């Protein structure tokens, strides 16, 4: 007997093959292209299981439009697209909480796939979003699927969005449920919105071992698993670890993961004899017409909204190279800092360059410019910190760089195992220099505030996005107990409102920091 297991992950609301930087693009990704592959593979196999590994609600302009512009109670376009494909099960990603629990619950209620979630619990310890696992019968074969989510949601997410929820270790949940599943089913599948915390070749840590990613530990320590479907890190992976096949199918629907199992009956129960795992690229596929038609009206409304002009620029806020922006700053970054500082009333501001696809604000500035440059639905937090905190944060952001062949480059740790350019912050309200050739922890030279040295005991108010404000991105000097005020309006809306009040903006090319060898 043969069973085909198909997976998608981290589609992030990208239904059509476009990144929205330019109208009506044809990029090598999107759920409507993945749908073509999924349906083809389903037709080829008598027995199949189709899974989505989460992070489907947030990330694209379409996802933002439904939640923040239409103020829809549920993501009707995203649900319609997923429902046009015969998914069996899905689990919950960390970004599913960005628009609040009610929005997520309505998304689940409108989904035809069954959600499984074992390690997100209510106050009473019961699973909060459906059963911890479910079983599908394929002929006389029983396949159990366990749903898991990275426990780091609790550290990153706005606490109002995860109120009354408890996130336990995915490893702990797997240890609890896999033995139970093993008794009830022939095949045990773990559907984990998390990735690998160790190198798959030698087992050495490739990231901080802090519970964000636990796939390696789960596969190593929990006996009885037949298949591991992962996500979260946006990596393109297919292979075997400890004899267990695994996949991680990138993001935005750029790949479909496929694991084929050859099974035979042994002592009255099916057992896996062989497995074949691969990633199937979706980029050359023709979009599935049924999936595409399911969200046509919403996509047209999104394109109209993106084209709306908001303000004119005196000068230029575009740039050619994101890396050069991170080295030298830009008028675009200065503008974002200005909006943040005026919104929150503070001494210092920090922001990242969140997209490597966009190139700053064109003239006139449109919603397309805003939403493709500031790609996350971040809100802002105001913190009171010390000068010592600020210097520690500057040293952390300085770790982004290293030197190779006498040139400043991005430290490979920020691109593997996951691309994390968003963890490099640029600061406004202070002047500073990063000397990359200095040892880590001693790279920031002479930070000054209003011309005076930043001292350890100095008290400062800083504006950060809420992810960073609670320590996200390994910034332990920032924490929730230092937050003195939150703003509940997403940054994209704040930028739009600022431009509506200031229809003429001047490009500011002031440089307050430099990065040197």
From TrEMBL:
Coiled-coil positions? none
Query: PROSITE patterns annotated for this entry?
Result: 5_NUCLEOTIDASE_2
Q: What sequence ranges are listed for the domain Calcineurin-like phosphoesterase?
A: 4-235
- Pfam families linked: 5_nucleotid_C, Metallophos
SUPFAM superfamilies assigned: 5'-nucleotidase (syn. UDP-sugar hydrolase), C-terminal domain, Metallo-dependent phosphatases
| Entries under InterPro entries matching the protein | 5'-Nucleotdase_C, 5'-Nucleotdase_C_sf, 5'-Nucleotdase_CS, 5_nucleotidase/apyrase, Calcineurin-like_PHP, Metallo-depent_PP-like
Specify the 5'-Nucleotidase C-terminal domain's residue ranges: 325-479
Q: Which UniProt keywords apply?
A: Hydrolase, Nucleotide-binding, Signal
The family this protein is said to belong to = Belongs to the 5'-nucleotidase family.
| Protein name from the UniProt record | Bifunctional metallophosphatase/5'-nucleotidase
The species this protein belongs to is Fructilactobacillus carniphilus
């Amino acid at each position: 007997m043969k069973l085909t297991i198909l997976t998608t992950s981290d589609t992030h609301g990208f239904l059509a093959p476009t990144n929205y930087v330019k109208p009506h693009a044809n990029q090598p990704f999107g759920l409507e292209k993945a749908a073509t592959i999924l349906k083809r593979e389903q037709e080829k196999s008598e027995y199949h299981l189709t899974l989505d590994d989460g992070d489907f609600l947030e990330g694209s302009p379409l996802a933002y439009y439904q939640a923040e512009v239409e103020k829809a109670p549920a993501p009707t376009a995203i649900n319609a697209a997923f429902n046009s494909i015969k998914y069996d099960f899905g689990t919950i990603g960390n970004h599913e909480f960005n628009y609040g629990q009610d929005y997520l619950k309505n998304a689940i209620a409108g989904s035809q796939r069954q959600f499984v979630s074992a390690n997100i619990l209510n106050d009473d310890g019961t699973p909060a979003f459906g059963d911890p696992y479910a079983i599908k019968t394929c002929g006389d074969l029983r396949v159990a699927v366990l749903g898991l989510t990275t426990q780091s949601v609790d550290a990153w997410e706005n606490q109002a969005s995860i109120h009354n929820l408890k996130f336990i270790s995915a490893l702990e949940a797997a240890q609890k449920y896999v033995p139970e599943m093993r008794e009830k089913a022939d095949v045990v599948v773990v559907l984990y919105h998390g990735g690998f915390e160790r190198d798959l070749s030698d087992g050495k840590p490739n990231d901080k071992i802090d519970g964000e990613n636990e796939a390696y530990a789960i596969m190593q320590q929990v006996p009885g698993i037949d298949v591991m479907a992962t996500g979260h890190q946006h990596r393109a992976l297919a292979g075997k670890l400890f004899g267990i096949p695994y996949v991680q199918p990138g993001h935005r629907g750029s790949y479909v993961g496929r694991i084929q199992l050859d099974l035979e009956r042994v002592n009255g129960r099916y057992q896996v004899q062989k497995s074949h795992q691969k990633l199937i690229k979706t980029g050359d596929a023709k979009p599935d017409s049924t999936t595409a038609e399911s969200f046509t009206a919403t996509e047209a409304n999104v394109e109209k909204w993106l084209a709306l002009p908001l303000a004119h620029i005196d000068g230029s806020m575009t740039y050619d190279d994101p890396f050069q922006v991170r080295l030298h700053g830009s008028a675009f970054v200065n503008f974002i800092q200005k909006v943040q500082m005026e919104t929150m009333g503070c001494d210092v501001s920090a922001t990242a360059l969140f997209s490597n696809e966009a190139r700053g604000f064109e003239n006139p500035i449109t919603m397309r410019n805003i939403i493709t440059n500031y790609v996350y639905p971040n809100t802002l937090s105001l913190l009171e910190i010390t000068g010592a905190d600020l210097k520690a944060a500057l040293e952390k952001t300085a770790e982004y760089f290293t030197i190779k062949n006498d040139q400043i480059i991005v430290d490979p740790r920020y691109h593997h195992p996951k691309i994390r350019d968003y963890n490099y912050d640029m600061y406004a309200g202070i002047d500073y220099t990063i000397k990359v050739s200095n040892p880590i922890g001693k790279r920031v030279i002479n930070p000054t505030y209003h011309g005076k040295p930043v001292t350890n005991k100095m008290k400062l108010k800083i504006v950060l996005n809420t992810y960073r404000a609670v320590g996200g991105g390994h910034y332990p000097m920032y924490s929730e107990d230092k937050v003195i005020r939150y703003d509940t309006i997403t940054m994209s809306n704040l930028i739009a409102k600022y431009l509506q009040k200031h229809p003429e903006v001047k490009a500011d090319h002031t440089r307050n920091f430099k990065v040197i060898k």
